[in-house]
């Protein structure tokens, strides 16, 4: 018990040094030469007098942890760009050559996914320059995994989008749902079942899971738009706003216009400099002449 308390005290001590820089400087000056037990006593007395500091220390540690995760996710967004955007096995919708891409991670048995994903259909109906990349992320059990396999297998028969939408629209997705949707879409179920068992589909789902973990995506739905990871459901207004923001970021000035502007700006400044030099010389000549006139 004493050992655990000692470790706790040291943890709080470290946190205090982060929360109270002024206090840490005083401690470093006044008790650096004292032994460990005296330091613990000082810290313990301070904590007892200021118990709220424990909450502040914990909040600070949590904030630092969140910031660390965000920084790592931002770094991985760049590092894993090809896995996010160039995986040929990932189904796409909208404009394949769209200027803005929305990446969606989802599970067919996720209630928030069923509420949020239909907005992607609305988005591409309103914006013909948007590309959607679907990342199947079955994290809610065996039925979800089976549904993801079935959707990717339906892609091989050219009906991913229809199959995907039918599963999203279903209240609960399981094996019976999959069979019913396959029949409704007139898919060859024997071929579908065979493709569902293909190890390559398992590999694709594993890649999606590893990608989500690397980006600290631990729930569904989740979206990636540009350099932003958006966890949770989002409405159509939010999607449109973020897509517009990303499109603005992607806009670049016309190179010719930019070069021309800099050329004429440089020419103007050079001309102005020559004019200023002439006026300065004229002013000096005029001043000298005036002085000579007065002296004569």
Summarize the structure.
The longest helix has 41 residues, at 255-295.
Question: Could you list some keywords that capture this structure?
Answer:
296 residues, disordered N terminus, five-stranded mixed β-sheet, disordered C terminus
Polypeptide structure, described:
- The protein has 296 residues and is an alpha+beta fold.
- The protein is built from 14 helices and five strands.
- The chain has helices at residues 2-19, 21-30, 36-49, 52-79, 81-85, 111-116, 118-126, 142-155, 160-169, 175-184, 189-196, 199-214, 236-250, 255-295, and strands spanning 92-94, 100-106, 130-136, 222-225, 228-231.
- It has a five-stranded mixed sheet with strand order 1-3-2-4-5.
- Strand 4 (222-225) and strand 5 (228-231) form a beta hairpin.
- Helix 1 (2-19) packs across helix 4 (52-79), helix 8 (142-155) runs antiparallel to helix 9 and helix 8 crosses helix 11 (189-196).
- It is globular and about 80 Å long.
- The N and C termini lie far apart (104 Å).
- Mean pLDDT is 82; it is low at 1-5, 278-285 and 287-296.
Major β-sheet annotation? 5 strands, mixed
The total strand number stands at 5
Mean pLDDT: 82
Shape: globular
Number of continuous helical runs: 14
Chain oligomer state: single chain
The strand line-up of the biggest sheet is: 1-3-2-4-5
Give the terminus-to-terminus CA distance: 104 Å
Bin the helical content: 55-70%
Q: Which series of helices and strands comes N to C?
A: HHHHHEEHHEHHHHHEEHH
* Radius of gyration computed on alpha carbons: 32 Å
- Poorly predicted parts: 1-5, 278-285, 287-296
Structural class: alpha+beta
């Amino acid at each position: 018990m004493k050992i655990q308390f000692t470790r706790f005290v040291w943890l709080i001590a470290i946190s205090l040094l982060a929360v109270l820089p002024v206090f840490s400087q005083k401690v470093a000056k006044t008790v650096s030469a004292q032994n460990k037990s005296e330091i613990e006593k000082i810290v313990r007395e301070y904590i007892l007098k200021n118990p709220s500091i424990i909450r502040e220390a914990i909040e600070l540690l949590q904030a630092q942890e969140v910031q660390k995760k965000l920084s790592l996710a931002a770094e991985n967004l760049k590092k894993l760009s090809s896995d996010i955007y160039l995986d040929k096995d990932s189904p796409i919708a909208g404009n394949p050559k769209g200027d803005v891409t929305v990446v969606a991670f989802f599970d067919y048995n996720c209630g928030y996914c069923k509420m949020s994903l239909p907005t992607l259909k609305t988005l591409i109906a309103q914006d013909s320059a948007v590309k959607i990349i679907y990342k199947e992320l079955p994290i809610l059990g065996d039925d979800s995994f089976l549904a993801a396999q079935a959707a990717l297998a339906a892609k091989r028969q050219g009906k991913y989008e229809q199959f995907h939408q039918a599963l999203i629209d279903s209240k609960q997705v399981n094996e019976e749902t999959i069979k019913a949707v396959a029949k409704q879409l007139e898919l060859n179920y024997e071929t579908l079942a065979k493709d569902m068992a293909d190890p390559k589909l398992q590999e694709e789902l594993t890649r999606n899971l590893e990608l989500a973990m690397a980006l600290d995506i631990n729930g569904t739905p989740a979206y990636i738009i540009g350099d932003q990871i958006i966890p949770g459901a989002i409405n159509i207004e939010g999607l449109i706003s973020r897509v517009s923001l990303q499109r603005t970021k992607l806009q670049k000035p016309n190179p010719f216009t930019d070069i021309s502007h800099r050329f004429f700006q440089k020419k103007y400044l050079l001309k102005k400099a020559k004019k200023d030099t002439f006026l300065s010389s004229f002013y000096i000549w005029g001043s000298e002449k005036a002085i000579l006139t007065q002296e004569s």
